[in-house]
Amino acid sequence: MKVGINMLLWATQVTRDHVRQLKQVKAAGADGVEIPLFEGEVAHFRDLGLMLDDLGLERTTAMAMVSPTANPVSDDPKIRQAGTDQMKWLIECAAALGAPVICGPMFQTLGVFTGCAPTETEKRRVVAMLQEVAPLAAQAGVVLAVEPLNRFEAHMVNTTADGAALVKRVGHPNVGLLYDTFHANIEETDPVGAIRKHGKCIRHFHCSANHRGIPGQDHVPWLESFRALRAVGYDGWLMIEAFGRALPGLAAAIKIWRDLFPSNIAVAKQGLPFIRKTWKASARS
Length: 285
Prior knowledge:
- By secondary structure, the protein is an alpha/beta fold.
- The chain has ten helices and eight strands.
- Strands 1-2-3-4-5-6-7-8 form an eight-stranded parallel β-barrel, surrounded by seven helices.
- Helix 2 (about 40-55) links the parallel strand 2 (about 30-35) and strand 3 (about 60).
């Protein structure tokens, strides 16, 4: 099992200016980092991958569709095509970076709601988009891990069951689920049971506290969740995702109004050992 931390704590675009923070994360015990894919050229991510190799850090990637001009479920075919094109760009960037996973809500633009439940037409549009890009992901050696989001951020895919149904309809081995404990805390009636029921679809795992702070200093059922992951044979990443106020725009977007930890590096120094210890304990329980 490998553990890591999402670099959105420090930046929406990781560059060579973040070497100090990356070294700190490595020293705190991370096997790798999750790199945001929001902007930049493919060449930038190729260069970043070489730098991470030098630092001894593996990597995964995280994405989100944030522009209303690129949305896979839009009624406008040009906007839908822009969403597909964004996914193709993401796959290129992840391949250049040397990342085997792209995770995130790749089914709609964040915060764009119709005011209704997802329609069958919208679902078909997402399935068609993922079916188009999945072979490209396979060629690049990249898994697309679809992230169910809570109802306040998206309407298309909110629960693990929603995500598993989408993955089944896409029907491609390079498309699976990201399970995020923060969103599950809001949407699941039985978060641990959801892992056990749909665990075969889970290809990536976000360790995210119910308040977005440090895992282990919250009420997520970590030991039970890890037991469930072991029961379904999960052997992917355990990636910490926490959010602070260092990036005001991002903090405002995800509603972080107070400091949840003393420093960003404290998340790594306290969270990574907790995740390792609890994962180990889950084997003995």
